[in-house]
Records
---
Amino acid sequence: MAKGYRASKVNPQNTVRGNQADETIIDLSEVKTSAEHYYSAHKNTILGIAGGLILLVGGYFAYKFLYSEPRNKEALEQMYQAEFLFEKDSFEMALNNPGAGFPGFKEISENYSGTDAGNLAKYYAAICNLKLGNYQEAKDFISSYKASGNIMPIMKEGITGDIQAEMNDFEGARDSYKKPVK
Protein backbone atom coordinates (compact mmCIF):
# COMPACT_ATOMS: atom_id res chain seq x y z
CA MET A 1 0.00 0.00 0.00
CA ALA A 2 1.34 3.46 -0.94
CA LYS A 3 2.13 5.95 1.72
CA GLY A 4 -0.79 8.32 2.47
CA TYR A 5 -3.36 6.15 0.72
CA ARG A 6 -6.52 5.50 2.62
CA ALA A 7 -9.33 3.31 1.47
CA SER A 8 -12.65 5.07 1.10
CA LYS A 9 -15.45 4.14 3.42
CA VAL A 10 -18.76 3.08 1.99
CA ASN A 11 -21.67 4.98 3.45
CA PRO A 12 -24.64 2.63 3.73
CA GLN A 13 -27.12 5.51 3.28
CA ASN A 14 -25.79 6.32 -0.21
CA THR A 15 -26.18 2.81 -1.60
CA VAL A 16 -29.14 1.98 -3.78
CA ARG A 17 -31.30 -0.77 -2.41
CA GLY A 18 -33.16 -2.84 -4.85
CA ASN A 19 -34.98 -0.97 -7.64
CA GLN A 20 -35.51 2.41 -5.90
CA ALA A 21 -33.47 4.17 -8.61
CA ASP A 22 -35.68 2.64 -11.31
CA GLU A 23 -38.83 4.11 -9.76
CA THR A 24 -37.68 7.72 -10.22
CA ILE A 25 -37.00 7.41 -13.95
CA ILE A 26 -39.60 9.34 -15.94
CA ASP A 27 -41.09 7.77 -18.99
CA LEU A 28 -39.98 10.16 -21.75
CA SER A 29 -42.48 8.89 -24.27
CA GLU A 30 -45.28 9.67 -21.82
CA VAL A 31 -44.03 13.23 -21.32
CA LYS A 32 -43.67 13.71 -25.08
CA THR A 33 -47.19 12.47 -25.70
CA SER A 34 -48.71 14.71 -23.02
CA ALA A 35 -46.78 17.75 -24.37
CA GLU A 36 -48.03 17.02 -27.89
CA HIS A 37 -51.61 16.78 -26.64
CA TYR A 38 -51.28 20.06 -24.72
CA TYR A 39 -49.79 21.82 -27.76
CA SER A 40 -52.49 20.53 -30.12
CA ALA A 41 -55.22 21.59 -27.67
CA HIS A 42 -53.77 25.10 -27.15
CA LYS A 43 -52.03 25.64 -30.49
CA ASN A 44 -53.78 28.91 -31.40
CA THR A 45 -53.17 30.47 -27.99
CA ILE A 46 -49.48 29.51 -27.94
CA LEU A 47 -48.88 30.79 -31.47
CA GLY A 48 -50.84 33.98 -30.75
CA ILE A 49 -48.76 34.75 -27.66
CA ALA A 50 -45.50 33.99 -29.47
CA GLY A 51 -46.52 36.15 -32.44
CA GLY A 52 -47.59 38.97 -30.14
CA LEU A 53 -44.25 38.89 -28.33
CA ILE A 54 -42.37 38.96 -31.63
CA LEU A 55 -44.44 41.93 -32.83
CA LEU A 56 -43.96 43.75 -29.54
CA VAL A 57 -40.17 43.31 -29.52
CA GLY A 58 -39.93 44.11 -33.23
CA GLY A 59 -42.07 47.22 -32.80
CA TYR A 60 -39.92 48.45 -29.94
CA PHE A 61 -36.69 48.09 -31.91
CA ALA A 62 -38.26 49.64 -35.02
CA TYR A 63 -39.42 52.66 -33.01
CA LYS A 64 -36.08 53.04 -31.27
CA PHE A 65 -33.74 52.63 -34.24
CA LEU A 66 -35.88 53.85 -37.14
CA TYR A 67 -37.73 56.76 -35.52
CA SER A 68 -36.47 57.91 -32.14
CA GLU A 69 -32.69 57.85 -32.62
CA PRO A 70 -32.71 59.59 -36.04
CA ARG A 71 -34.99 62.34 -34.63
CA ASN A 72 -32.69 62.78 -31.64
CA LYS A 73 -29.66 63.05 -33.92
CA GLU A 74 -31.46 65.61 -36.08
CA ALA A 75 -32.44 67.65 -33.02
CA LEU A 76 -28.85 67.67 -31.77
CA GLU A 77 -27.69 68.96 -35.15
CA GLN A 78 -30.39 71.65 -35.06
CA MET A 79 -29.29 72.80 -31.59
CA TYR A 80 -25.75 73.66 -32.67
CA GLN A 81 -26.37 77.32 -33.55
CA ALA A 82 -28.59 77.94 -30.51
CA GLU A 83 -25.94 76.47 -28.18
CA PHE A 84 -23.29 78.66 -29.78
CA LEU A 85 -25.37 81.78 -29.13
CA PHE A 86 -26.23 80.60 -25.61
CA GLU A 87 -22.50 80.43 -24.83
CA LYS A 88 -22.18 84.02 -26.08
CA ASP A 89 -24.99 85.15 -23.72
CA SER A 90 -27.32 85.94 -26.64
CA PHE A 91 -30.29 84.41 -24.85
CA GLU A 92 -33.06 86.00 -26.95
CA MET A 93 -31.55 84.74 -30.19
CA ALA A 94 -30.73 81.31 -28.74
CA LEU A 95 -34.30 80.96 -27.51
CA ASN A 96 -36.19 82.13 -30.58
CA ASN A 97 -34.08 82.68 -33.70
CA PRO A 98 -30.40 81.80 -33.80
CA GLY A 99 -30.30 82.54 -37.53
CA ALA A 100 -28.84 80.64 -40.48
CA GLY A 101 -32.05 78.65 -40.77
CA PHE A 102 -31.65 76.96 -37.38
CA PRO A 103 -34.48 76.81 -34.85
CA GLY A 104 -34.15 78.15 -31.33
CA PHE A 105 -34.45 76.14 -28.13
CA LYS A 106 -38.16 76.87 -27.85
CA GLU A 107 -38.93 75.48 -31.31
CA ILE A 108 -36.63 72.48 -30.82
CA SER A 109 -38.34 71.59 -27.53
CA GLU A 110 -41.73 71.68 -29.29
CA ASN A 111 -40.75 69.92 -32.53
CA TYR A 112 -38.57 67.22 -30.99
CA SER A 113 -40.48 66.43 -27.83
CA GLY A 114 -39.90 62.89 -26.66
CA THR A 115 -36.22 62.95 -27.59
CA ASP A 116 -33.27 63.53 -25.29
CA ALA A 117 -32.25 66.58 -27.33
CA GLY A 118 -35.78 68.02 -27.11
CA ASN A 119 -35.67 67.52 -23.37
CA LEU A 120 -32.29 69.27 -23.16
CA ALA A 121 -33.70 72.15 -25.23
CA LYS A 122 -36.31 72.64 -22.48
CA TYR A 123 -33.50 73.08 -19.97
CA TYR A 124 -31.75 75.64 -22.16
CA ALA A 125 -35.05 77.42 -22.84
CA ALA A 126 -35.71 77.67 -19.10
CA ILE A 127 -32.32 79.31 -18.52
CA CYS A 128 -32.81 81.69 -21.47
CA ASN A 129 -36.22 82.75 -20.18
CA LEU A 130 -34.83 83.19 -16.67
CA LYS A 131 -32.05 85.46 -17.97
CA LEU A 132 -34.56 87.42 -20.08
CA GLY A 133 -36.93 87.96 -17.14
CA ASN A 134 -39.72 85.71 -18.47
CA TYR A 135 -40.11 83.87 -15.18
CA GLN A 136 -43.42 82.11 -15.82
CA GLU A 137 -42.18 80.71 -19.14
CA ALA A 138 -38.94 79.68 -17.45
CA LYS A 139 -40.95 77.91 -14.75
CA ASP A 140 -43.04 76.12 -17.39
CA PHE A 141 -39.97 74.92 -19.27
CA ILE A 142 -38.04 73.77 -16.19
CA SER A 143 -41.07 71.94 -14.78
CA SER A 144 -41.46 69.99 -18.04
CA TYR A 145 -37.72 69.15 -18.15
CA LYS A 146 -36.97 65.56 -17.08
CA ALA A 147 -33.58 65.59 -15.39
CA SER A 148 -31.49 62.42 -15.30
CA GLY A 149 -28.08 61.43 -14.02
CA ASN A 150 -26.33 62.70 -10.91
CA ILE A 151 -25.79 66.37 -11.73
CA MET A 152 -28.78 67.49 -13.79
CA PRO A 153 -31.45 66.95 -11.09
CA ILE A 154 -29.40 69.19 -8.80
CA MET A 155 -29.06 71.80 -11.56
CA LYS A 156 -32.80 71.64 -12.22
CA GLU A 157 -33.60 72.31 -8.56
CA GLY A 158 -31.13 75.20 -8.49
CA ILE A 159 -32.73 76.83 -11.52
CA THR A 160 -36.19 76.19 -10.06
CA GLY A 161 -35.04 77.95 -6.89
CA ASP A 162 -33.68 80.88 -8.91
CA ILE A 163 -36.99 81.24 -10.77
CA GLN A 164 -38.99 81.11 -7.55
CA ALA A 165 -36.71 83.69 -5.92
CA GLU A 166 -37.18 86.02 -8.90
CA MET A 167 -40.95 85.54 -8.57
CA ASN A 168 -40.68 86.50 -4.84
CA ASP A 169 -41.57 82.97 -3.68
CA PHE A 170 -38.72 82.78 -1.19
CA GLU A 171 -40.06 79.80 0.76
CA GLY A 172 -40.43 77.79 -2.45
CA ALA A 173 -36.94 78.87 -3.48
CA ARG A 174 -35.53 77.75 -0.13
CA ASP A 175 -37.26 74.37 -0.49
CA SER A 176 -35.89 73.96 -4.02
CA TYR A 177 -32.37 74.79 -2.90
CA LYS A 178 -32.61 72.35 0.02
CA LYS A 179 -34.12 69.49 -1.99
CA PRO A 180 -30.82 68.23 -3.51
CA VAL A 181 -29.18 68.24 -0.08
CA LYS A 182 -31.73 65.82 1.38
Note: The chain has a mean pLDDT of 89.
---
Amino acid sequence: MNSTFAKWFWRIYLLAAIINTAVWLWCRFPWGLVVIAVAALMRLRTVIQQQRQRQNDGYWLEFLSAGVLRGDDNQFAVVYHEGEKQHFFQGRKSNGSAPDILTVPSQLVWRLQTPQWMAERRELILERIQRELEQRKKGRQMRIVEEDKE
Protein backbone atom coordinates (compact mmCIF):
# COMPACT_ATOMS: atom_id res chain seq x y z
CA MET A 1 0.00 0.00 0.00
CA ASN A 2 1.25 3.45 -0.83
CA SER A 3 2.34 5.19 2.36
CA THR A 4 1.09 8.56 1.08
CA PHE A 5 -2.35 7.05 0.55
CA ALA A 6 -2.29 5.56 4.05
CA LYS A 7 -1.29 8.88 5.62
CA TRP A 8 -4.09 10.75 3.85
CA PHE A 9 -6.60 8.00 4.63
CA TRP A 10 -5.90 8.25 8.36
CA ARG A 11 -5.93 12.04 8.26
CA ILE A 12 -9.36 12.03 6.61
CA TYR A 13 -10.56 9.31 8.97
CA LEU A 14 -9.42 11.38 11.97
CA LEU A 15 -11.10 14.48 10.55
CA ALA A 16 -14.37 12.55 10.12
CA ALA A 17 -14.12 11.30 13.70
CA ILE A 18 -13.56 14.84 14.94
CA ILE A 19 -16.55 16.13 12.97
CA ASN A 20 -18.73 13.29 14.25
CA THR A 21 -17.68 14.00 17.83
CA ALA A 22 -18.29 17.72 17.34
CA VAL A 23 -21.83 17.14 16.09
CA TRP A 24 -22.52 14.79 19.01
CA LEU A 25 -21.14 17.31 21.49
CA TRP A 26 -23.03 20.18 19.89
CA CYS A 27 -26.33 18.38 20.51
CA ARG A 28 -25.50 17.82 24.18
CA PHE A 29 -23.14 20.67 24.98
CA PRO A 30 -23.23 23.70 22.66
CA TRP A 31 -19.69 24.78 23.55
CA GLY A 32 -18.36 21.34 22.61
CA LEU A 33 -18.02 22.36 18.98
CA VAL A 34 -15.92 25.35 19.97
CA VAL A 35 -13.66 23.18 22.13
CA ILE A 36 -13.21 20.62 19.34
CA ALA A 37 -12.62 23.36 16.75
CA VAL A 38 -9.91 24.97 18.87
CA ALA A 39 -8.22 21.61 19.49
CA ALA A 40 -8.37 20.72 15.79
CA LEU A 41 -6.94 24.10 14.77
CA MET A 42 -4.09 23.74 17.26
CA ARG A 43 -3.25 20.29 15.87
CA LEU A 44 -3.52 21.53 12.28
CA ARG A 45 -1.16 24.39 13.10
CA THR A 46 1.40 21.92 14.50
CA VAL A 47 1.17 19.69 11.42
CA ILE A 48 1.59 22.65 9.06
CA GLN A 49 4.58 23.93 11.04
CA GLN A 50 6.22 20.49 10.87
CA GLN A 51 5.66 20.28 7.11
CA ARG A 52 7.11 23.74 6.55
CA GLN A 53 10.10 22.87 8.72
CA ARG A 54 10.68 19.71 6.67
CA GLN A 55 10.45 21.67 3.42
CA ASN A 56 12.83 24.35 4.67
CA ASP A 57 15.39 21.91 6.08
CA GLY A 58 15.09 19.35 3.30
CA TYR A 59 15.34 16.46 5.77
CA TRP A 60 13.53 14.99 8.76
CA LEU A 61 13.84 12.18 11.27
CA GLU A 62 11.31 9.49 12.01
CA PHE A 63 11.50 7.55 15.27
CA LEU A 64 10.40 3.89 15.13
CA SER A 65 9.70 1.87 18.27
CA ALA A 66 10.36 -1.82 18.78
CA GLY A 67 6.73 -2.62 18.01
CA VAL A 68 6.98 -1.02 14.58
CA LEU A 69 10.29 -2.77 13.90
CA ARG A 70 8.96 -6.09 15.17
CA GLY A 71 12.21 -6.50 17.04
CA ASP A 72 13.23 -6.97 20.63
CA ASP A 73 11.70 -4.69 23.23
CA ASN A 74 15.02 -2.93 23.68
CA GLN A 75 15.45 -1.97 20.01
CA PHE A 76 14.38 1.11 18.09
CA ALA A 77 15.35 2.87 14.88
CA VAL A 78 15.75 6.39 13.60
CA VAL A 79 15.03 6.92 9.92
CA TYR A 80 16.84 9.81 8.26
CA HIS A 81 14.74 11.12 5.35
CA GLU A 82 16.11 13.47 2.72
CA GLY A 83 13.72 14.08 -0.14
CA GLU A 84 12.65 10.65 -1.42
CA LYS A 85 15.74 8.96 0.04
CA GLN A 86 15.95 7.39 3.47
CA HIS A 87 18.36 5.46 5.67
CA PHE A 88 17.77 3.49 8.89
CA PHE A 89 19.94 3.77 11.98
CA GLN A 90 19.35 1.19 14.69
CA GLY A 91 19.50 1.77 18.40
CA ARG A 92 19.25 0.08 21.77
CA LYS A 93 17.23 1.19 24.76
CA SER A 94 19.22 1.56 27.95
CA ASN A 95 18.12 0.48 31.39
CA GLY A 96 17.11 3.02 33.96
CA SER A 97 17.68 6.71 33.35
CA ALA A 98 20.71 6.30 31.07
CA PRO A 99 20.21 7.71 27.56
CA ASP A 100 19.32 5.33 24.75
CA ILE A 101 22.09 4.52 22.28
CA LEU A 102 21.77 5.22 18.56
CA THR A 103 24.48 3.31 16.69
CA VAL A 104 26.16 4.64 13.56
CA PRO A 105 28.97 3.04 11.58
CA SER A 106 32.56 4.27 11.86
CA GLN A 107 33.88 6.54 9.11
CA LEU A 108 35.42 3.76 7.04
CA VAL A 109 32.42 1.44 7.27
CA TRP A 110 30.11 4.41 6.59
CA ARG A 111 31.78 5.05 3.22
CA LEU A 112 31.65 1.37 2.31
CA GLN A 113 28.12 0.46 3.43
CA THR A 114 25.93 3.53 3.14
CA PRO A 115 24.20 4.50 -0.11
CA GLN A 116 26.16 6.70 -2.50
CA TRP A 117 24.00 9.76 -1.87
CA MET A 118 25.15 9.89 1.75
CA ALA A 119 28.61 8.27 1.64
CA GLU A 120 30.57 11.55 1.60
CA ARG A 121 28.17 13.48 3.85
CA ARG A 122 28.69 11.69 7.16
CA GLU A 123 29.51 14.75 9.28
CA LEU A 124 26.58 16.77 7.96
CA ILE A 125 24.08 13.95 8.49
CA LEU A 126 25.34 13.12 12.00
CA GLU A 127 25.27 16.82 12.90
CA ARG A 128 21.64 17.01 11.76
CA ILE A 129 20.69 13.90 13.71
CA GLN A 130 22.45 15.18 16.83
CA ARG A 131 20.68 18.55 16.56
CA GLU A 132 17.29 16.85 16.23
CA LEU A 133 18.01 14.57 19.18
CA GLU A 134 18.92 17.55 21.35
CA GLN A 135 15.71 19.37 20.38
CA ARG A 136 13.43 16.42 21.18
CA LYS A 137 10.84 17.19 23.79
CA LYS A 138 9.17 13.77 23.88
CA GLY A 139 10.73 10.47 24.77
CA ARG A 140 13.99 9.50 26.35
CA GLN A 141 17.33 11.13 25.70
CA MET A 142 19.63 9.51 23.13
CA ARG A 143 23.31 9.58 22.40
CA ILE A 144 25.12 8.61 19.21
CA VAL A 145 27.76 5.87 19.43
CA GLU A 146 29.98 4.55 16.64
CA GLU A 147 29.67 0.79 16.36
CA ASP A 148 30.50 -1.47 13.44
CA LYS A 149 28.51 -4.65 12.96
CA GLU A 150 30.48 -7.80 12.37
Note: The mean pLDDT is 83.
---
Amino acid sequence: MQSDDSKARPGQEFGWLNRDVFRLFQKAWDKHLRASGTGITVPQSRVFAELRQRDGLTQTELADLVMMEKAPLGRLLDRMEELSLVERRPDPSDRRVRRVYLTGRIDEFYDELWGAAFAMFGAALEGFTAAEYETLLDMLHRIKVNLEAAEAADGQGQPGRQEGLRGGET
Protein backbone atom coordinates (compact mmCIF):
# COMPACT_ATOMS: atom_id res chain seq x y z
CA MET A 1 0.00 0.00 0.00
CA GLN A 2 1.30 3.45 -0.88
CA SER A 3 1.87 6.02 1.82
CA ASP A 4 0.34 9.49 1.51
CA ASP A 5 3.82 10.81 0.64
CA SER A 6 4.24 8.36 -2.26
CA LYS A 7 0.81 9.41 -3.61
CA ALA A 8 2.01 13.01 -3.56
CA ARG A 9 5.09 11.99 -5.54
CA PRO A 10 4.10 9.34 -8.10
CA GLY A 11 7.03 7.12 -9.00
CA GLN A 12 8.86 7.62 -5.71
CA GLU A 13 8.12 4.09 -4.49
CA PHE A 14 9.21 2.73 -7.89
CA GLY A 15 12.48 4.63 -7.58
CA TRP A 16 13.24 3.31 -4.12
CA LEU A 17 12.31 -0.27 -5.03
CA ASN A 18 14.45 -0.09 -8.17
CA ARG A 19 17.41 1.17 -6.13
CA ASP A 20 16.93 -1.54 -3.49
CA VAL A 21 16.69 -4.35 -6.05
CA PHE A 22 19.84 -3.08 -7.79
CA ARG A 23 21.67 -2.83 -4.45
CA LEU A 24 20.64 -6.35 -3.42
CA PHE A 25 21.72 -7.79 -6.78
CA GLN A 26 25.08 -6.04 -6.45
CA LYS A 27 25.52 -7.31 -2.89
CA ALA A 28 24.68 -10.91 -3.86
CA TRP A 29 26.93 -10.73 -6.93
CA ASP A 30 29.83 -9.32 -4.90
CA LYS A 31 29.39 -12.07 -2.30
CA HIS A 32 29.50 -14.75 -5.00
CA LEU A 33 32.55 -13.26 -6.69
CA ARG A 34 34.44 -13.09 -3.40
CA ALA A 35 33.56 -16.72 -2.62
CA SER A 36 34.48 -17.94 -6.10
CA GLY A 37 38.19 -17.44 -5.59
CA THR A 38 38.57 -16.14 -9.15
CA GLY A 39 39.69 -12.71 -7.97
CA ILE A 40 37.17 -11.12 -10.35
CA THR A 41 35.51 -7.97 -8.99
CA VAL A 42 32.03 -6.61 -9.68
CA PRO A 43 33.36 -3.81 -11.93
CA GLN A 44 35.49 -6.32 -13.85
CA SER A 45 32.46 -8.58 -14.30
CA ARG A 46 30.54 -5.62 -15.79
CA VAL A 47 33.38 -5.06 -18.28
CA PHE A 48 33.32 -8.78 -19.16
CA ALA A 49 29.55 -8.74 -19.69
CA GLU A 50 29.64 -5.72 -22.00
CA LEU A 51 32.62 -6.93 -24.02
CA ARG A 52 31.09 -10.39 -24.28
CA GLN A 53 28.12 -8.72 -25.99
CA ARG A 54 30.23 -6.44 -28.18
CA ASP A 55 33.98 -6.90 -28.09
CA GLY A 56 36.09 -3.97 -29.25
CA LEU A 57 34.20 -1.12 -27.61
CA THR A 58 35.99 2.18 -27.18
CA GLN A 59 36.90 3.13 -23.63
CA THR A 60 34.31 5.94 -23.82
CA GLU A 61 31.54 3.55 -24.91
CA LEU A 62 32.54 1.07 -22.23
CA ALA A 63 32.60 3.76 -19.52
CA ASP A 64 29.01 4.69 -20.37
CA LEU A 65 27.81 1.08 -20.39
CA VAL A 66 29.44 0.08 -17.09
CA MET A 67 28.43 3.39 -15.45
CA MET A 68 31.96 4.51 -14.60
CA GLU A 69 33.85 7.70 -15.23
CA LYS A 70 36.63 7.39 -17.81
CA ALA A 71 39.56 7.81 -15.38
CA PRO A 72 38.50 5.06 -12.91
CA LEU A 73 37.67 2.80 -15.86
CA GLY A 74 41.13 3.45 -17.27
CA ARG A 75 42.70 2.33 -13.98
CA LEU A 76 40.45 -0.75 -13.90
CA LEU A 77 41.47 -1.61 -17.46
CA ASP A 78 45.13 -1.14 -16.52
CA ARG A 79 44.72 -3.79 -13.80
CA MET A 80 42.77 -6.07 -16.14
CA GLU A 81 45.51 -5.75 -18.77
CA GLU A 82 48.17 -6.62 -16.18
CA LEU A 83 46.17 -9.81 -15.49
CA SER A 84 45.85 -10.51 -19.25
CA LEU A 85 42.05 -10.29 -19.03
CA VAL A 86 41.68 -7.55 -21.66
CA GLU A 87 43.84 -5.77 -24.17
CA ARG A 88 43.58 -2.26 -25.58
CA ARG A 89 44.41 -1.67 -29.22
CA PRO A 90 44.37 1.42 -31.39
CA ASP A 91 41.34 1.79 -33.64
CA PRO A 92 42.44 0.97 -37.20
CA SER A 93 40.65 4.03 -38.61
CA ASP A 94 41.58 6.51 -35.84
CA ARG A 95 44.75 5.76 -33.90
CA ARG A 96 43.77 8.26 -31.16
CA VAL A 97 40.91 5.94 -30.19
CA ARG A 98 41.63 2.82 -28.19
CA ARG A 99 39.37 -0.20 -28.32
CA VAL A 100 39.08 -2.81 -25.58
CA TYR A 101 39.06 -6.53 -26.34
CA LEU A 102 38.69 -9.63 -24.21
CA THR A 103 41.56 -12.08 -24.17
CA GLY A 104 41.04 -15.83 -24.11
CA ARG A 105 41.41 -15.73 -20.34
CA ILE A 106 37.70 -14.97 -19.90
CA ASP A 107 37.02 -18.58 -20.88
CA GLU A 108 38.57 -19.66 -17.56
CA PHE A 109 35.82 -17.82 -15.67
CA TYR A 110 32.87 -17.61 -18.05
CA ASP A 111 30.93 -20.75 -17.12
CA GLU A 112 31.30 -20.16 -13.39
CA LEU A 113 30.44 -16.45 -13.54
CA TRP A 114 27.38 -16.72 -15.70
CA GLY A 115 26.18 -19.93 -14.09
CA ALA A 116 26.22 -18.06 -10.78
CA ALA A 117 24.45 -15.09 -12.36
CA PHE A 118 21.66 -17.29 -13.68
CA ALA A 119 21.31 -18.97 -10.27
CA MET A 120 21.05 -15.53 -8.67
CA PHE A 121 18.37 -14.48 -11.18
CA GLY A 122 16.53 -17.73 -10.49
CA ALA A 123 16.53 -16.99 -6.76
CA ALA A 124 15.23 -13.47 -7.42
CA LEU A 125 12.42 -14.80 -9.60
CA GLU A 126 11.44 -17.64 -7.25
CA GLY A 127 7.67 -18.08 -7.18
CA PHE A 128 6.99 -16.13 -10.38
CA THR A 129 4.81 -17.89 -12.92
CA ALA A 130 5.92 -17.91 -16.56
CA ALA A 131 3.22 -15.33 -17.31
CA GLU A 132 4.38 -13.06 -14.47
CA TYR A 133 7.96 -13.34 -15.70
CA GLU A 134 6.92 -12.38 -19.24
CA THR A 135 4.89 -9.44 -17.88
CA LEU A 136 7.88 -8.31 -15.83
CA LEU A 137 10.14 -8.44 -18.90
CA ASP A 138 7.57 -6.52 -20.96
CA MET A 139 7.29 -3.80 -18.31
CA LEU A 140 11.05 -3.49 -17.88
CA HIS A 141 11.43 -3.23 -21.66
CA ARG A 142 8.81 -0.45 -21.74
CA ILE A 143 10.65 1.43 -18.98
CA LYS A 144 13.91 1.07 -20.91
CA VAL A 145 12.31 2.36 -24.13
CA ASN A 146 10.76 5.31 -22.26
CA LEU A 147 14.08 6.25 -20.67
CA GLU A 148 15.96 5.90 -23.97
CA ALA A 149 13.38 8.14 -25.66
CA ALA A 150 13.68 10.74 -22.90
CA GLU A 151 17.47 10.63 -23.19
CA ALA A 152 17.33 11.00 -26.97
CA ALA A 153 14.83 13.86 -26.74
CA ASP A 154 17.12 15.74 -24.40
CA GLY A 155 20.17 14.99 -26.52
CA GLN A 156 22.58 15.34 -23.60
CA GLY A 157 22.00 12.19 -21.61
CA GLN A 158 19.78 13.93 -19.06
CA PRO A 159 16.20 12.76 -18.53
CA GLY A 160 13.76 14.85 -20.49
CA ARG A 161 10.26 15.94 -19.59
CA GLN A 162 8.53 13.30 -17.51
CA GLU A 163 4.84 14.01 -18.02
CA GLY A 164 3.85 10.51 -16.95
CA LEU A 165 5.39 10.99 -13.51
CA ARG A 166 4.74 14.67 -12.90
CA GLY A 167 1.32 15.13 -14.37
CA GLY A 168 2.48 17.57 -17.04
CA GLU A 169 4.90 19.60 -14.93
CA THR A 170 8.35 20.33 -16.31
Note: Residues 32 and 116 are 7 Å apart (CA to CA).
---
Amino acid sequence: MTTCLEWTSIAHCITDSPQVILQKLFLELTFQKGKILPHRKFLAQRGDQYSDSHRACIHAALNILEYQRILDEET
Protein backbone atom coordinates (compact mmCIF):
# COMPACT_ATOMS: atom_id res chain seq x y z
CA MET A 1 0.00 0.00 0.00
CA THR A 2 1.21 3.52 -0.73
CA THR A 3 2.77 5.13 2.34
CA CYS A 4 0.56 8.22 2.20
CA LEU A 5 -2.53 6.00 2.38
CA GLU A 6 -1.21 3.58 4.98
CA TRP A 7 -2.77 3.70 8.42
CA THR A 8 -0.27 3.90 11.26
CA SER A 9 -2.00 5.51 14.22
CA ILE A 10 -4.08 8.53 15.06
CA ALA A 11 -0.98 10.16 16.60
CA HIS A 12 0.79 10.08 13.22
CA CYS A 13 -2.13 11.84 11.55
CA ILE A 14 -1.79 15.21 13.30
CA THR A 15 -1.21 17.10 10.07
CA ASP A 16 -3.85 15.20 8.07
CA SER A 17 -7.32 16.62 7.57
CA PRO A 18 -10.24 14.75 9.15
CA GLN A 19 -11.33 13.62 5.68
CA VAL A 20 -7.92 12.08 4.97
CA ILE A 21 -7.92 10.31 8.35
CA LEU A 22 -11.36 8.82 7.65
CA GLN A 23 -10.31 7.82 4.14
CA LYS A 24 -7.27 6.02 5.55
CA LEU A 25 -9.40 4.22 8.12
CA PHE A 26 -12.05 3.20 5.62
CA LEU A 27 -9.39 2.03 3.18
CA GLU A 28 -7.87 -0.12 5.92
CA LEU A 29 -11.30 -1.48 6.88
CA THR A 30 -11.97 -2.38 3.25
CA PHE A 31 -8.57 -4.09 3.05
CA GLN A 32 -9.35 -6.16 6.17
CA LYS A 33 -12.78 -7.10 4.79
CA GLY A 34 -11.05 -8.17 1.58
CA LYS A 35 -8.92 -10.54 3.64
CA ILE A 36 -12.03 -12.14 5.15
CA LEU A 37 -14.15 -12.62 2.03
CA PRO A 38 -12.15 -15.38 0.29
CA HIS A 39 -11.93 -17.40 3.53
CA ARG A 40 -15.47 -16.88 4.79
CA LYS A 41 -16.86 -19.99 3.10
CA PHE A 42 -14.44 -22.16 5.11
CA LEU A 43 -15.34 -20.80 8.57
CA ALA A 44 -17.99 -23.45 9.22
CA GLN A 45 -15.65 -26.24 8.13
CA ARG A 46 -13.68 -28.26 10.65
CA GLY A 47 -10.26 -29.75 10.20
CA ASP A 48 -6.61 -28.78 10.04
CA GLN A 49 -6.81 -27.96 6.34
CA TYR A 50 -9.06 -24.98 7.21
CA SER A 51 -6.96 -23.57 10.07
CA ASP A 52 -5.25 -20.99 7.83
CA SER A 53 -8.63 -19.67 6.74
CA HIS A 54 -9.83 -19.54 10.35
CA ARG A 55 -6.69 -17.66 11.41
CA ALA A 56 -6.94 -15.18 8.52
CA CYS A 57 -10.57 -14.38 9.33
CA ILE A 58 -9.97 -14.05 13.05
CA HIS A 59 -6.92 -11.83 12.56
CA ALA A 60 -8.74 -9.54 10.11
CA ALA A 61 -11.85 -9.41 12.31
CA LEU A 62 -9.78 -8.43 15.34
CA ASN A 63 -8.12 -5.69 13.28
CA ILE A 64 -11.54 -4.39 12.25
CA LEU A 65 -12.65 -4.34 15.89
CA GLU A 66 -9.52 -2.39 16.81
CA TYR A 67 -10.24 0.22 14.13
CA GLN A 68 -13.83 0.48 15.37
CA ARG A 69 -12.50 1.03 18.90
CA ILE A 70 -10.22 3.79 17.62
CA LEU A 71 -13.12 5.47 15.80
CA ASP A 72 -15.32 5.23 18.88
CA GLU A 73 -12.58 6.59 21.12
CA GLU A 74 -11.74 9.52 18.84
CA THR A 75 -15.29 10.64 18.08
Note: The mean pLDDT is 87.
